Amino acid sequence: MIGEIYADALAGESAEIEYVDGTRVMLETARWFEPIDGDEELLSRCASPTLDVGSGPGRLTAALTRRGIRSLGIDITPRAVALTRLAGGFALLRDVFEDVPGSGRWATALLADGNIGIGGNPEALLHRVRQLLRPGGTILAEVAPPGTRSRVDRLRLRRGPRAGDWFGWATVSASDIQRIGLAGGFAEVDCWTAHGRWLARLH
Ligand SMILES: C[S@@+](CC[C@H](N)C(=O)[O-])C[C@H]1O[C@@H](n2cnc3c(N)ncnc32)[C@H](O)[C@@H]1O
Description:
Rossmann fold; 5-stranded antiparallel beta sheet; 6 helices; methyltransferase; transferase; SAM-dependent_MTases_sf; Methyltransferase type 12
């Protein structure tokens, strides 16, 4: 997801996700620029202030700002941050595992569009995001449909002969999110489906 090829993909260039076994699939960034069915399920549950982790081009951060929810997008890709600002959201170039403003004070943290995969270690990511939340805060995460195998893939982005660095990306199934959330110290974990997406609330 990370690096120049991803930045170029956000600018409209084509790019592929390449797995270690050689499988390649198109990276479809265009869908992140417009509202996606089911976004409302996330947006309507966000309280002020909300941290959009891995905000990409910022459709959710900007939508929250428009509806009067204080929100901040963080992303490690400068072009994503620039696009979020262009869309009308507040955004900073930050790695979620490093220094993030407002630590311990966020009411909601969003891990949308499969961003529970960031870092390739969902337990570590949930632990980190929990540190950023205020007591009683909530994580809203998008997970994979039940029956999907939860796993960590090594992948990289490719555009023709150019390939980026390998990185880890986790897939978490709706069937596993409750176990992972409860083991991570969350008291309540709900999971539901809307518009073909699987969403989880960890509280
Ligand atoms: C699947 S895309 C998310 C799309 C986004 N939610 C949207 O609405 O457009 C994943 C994003 O996470 C960002 N990312 C990856 N690792 C990150 C990290 N450690 N901290 C913050 N952002 C990260 C990537 O740069 C990328 O923009």
